[in-house]
Specification:
- The chain has 2 domains: 152 residues, no CATH class; 267 residues, Rossmann fold (3-Layer(aba) Sandwich), CATH 3.40.50.
- Helix 2 runs parallel beside helix 6.
- Helix content is 20%, strand content 23%.
- The protein starts with a strand and ends in a 17-residue tail after the last strand.
- Helix 5 links the parallel strand 18 and strand 19.
Length: 446
Amino acid sequence: MREDKPDSRPDPTGKYREPDKDQGKEPNKDKGHTERISKILAERVRAFAFDGLAPGRRGTTNLYLDHDPLPAGSTIGPKPESYTVDRHSWLVFADHHPRTAFGHNCSYYLHDARTGELYRRIAAQFPPYPHRDIHQLQRFHEPVPPIRSLPLPRRPWPGFEVPMQVSSGGAPAGKRYAILFAGQCDRFHANDLELSYRALLDVFGFDPANVIVLLHNGTKTGTPFLDDDGVTLRQWPGKWPDNNKGFRMQLTGSGTREAFNTALTNLHLTANDLLFIHTAGHGDSTFRGQCMRLRPDGSDLYFSDQMQNDLVTQLGGTCRSLLVFMNQCYSGGFSTAIKAVGTAKSTQTFFAAACAADDWAHATDDENWSEFALNWYEAEMQHHIDPAPYMPGTDDDGDGKVEASEAYDYCVFMNSVSKGFDSPVLTRVPDPDLSGNSSADEIVLA
């Protein structure tokens, strides 16, 4: 991260007035809250920020203002590109390339909390969060419509006292089905599928009869469900409104190819239906290609071309939307296979994988979750499962529902700002147009 040092500039509006008594003052620590910026001071900050732009950038840079102050000592920007604010300040974010992806040239403008004067510009590559002191950035200068709304931080959830709401996207025209599938797996993979199960039922209103869970040996007494002693049934680590720490998912069968095929043949899709497939567990890459490991001894490898053939030949009917989410290692190697399935069995298909065909998927530091699965479901629900101090918005277009492309973008963004090790992969049917959009981008679970 680099620091620019602008010259001190007079008020560009020519309307300097002494701040009112309470304008721009330090947070009232005795009362435990901060003062939001006043209207007059906000106008001055916006004017200083615009004047701080080079003339050639005024027609290409979008500007955002955080209406809550940054206390001295706040750290802004993702690690390792972070900056510690040395005085009480107002923050303006300057996005120099609004129509590019998340990592690109931008700047943080720091303005004196009392006068609104711009005193420091910091060159950066990412938006100025994650950080608990960043609140809500509001765009006030927009010469370039962004390709998507910047995922802006929200105020932290106060915990799960606020119940999650069923998505307002509206009921689909057809039925919704889900298959949650993992063979050889660890505890965090079982945690992921439990999270998937709870989200589908509690948040998106899936019929439990239409959610098929094929996991490990088909019981909830196997290794993925046991504590370190190998005997005691463990608790699910997620935070959920019902405070139920047991594993609620109802297992339909074991995580085998045979059980997967049985599930496919029992489905009878129609033209307006949605099929969601979430695979977890371990993956592998061999001379034959990428595969899922369904048994610990490696005797039951399920290759991508085999899954392609099974889905095309065993799945009954065709559907409107196919959403495939894969979280095992080397899962990107299933991309071509799922695209072929989508071409044959659905009108639109969205495939998202945690990593490339030659790469690994990763767990969180506490080994409670797969990074990609945790980010995906938090994006879909717009709600934290593993509490953290902030959550960027995920409904980028503000239409009341999180589309597959928005959930995927959130995963990519979180991986980039947290310096994660995943390498997400995306495939869509139909292929994106010249503007990079596909109708599959708009698939929703609700």
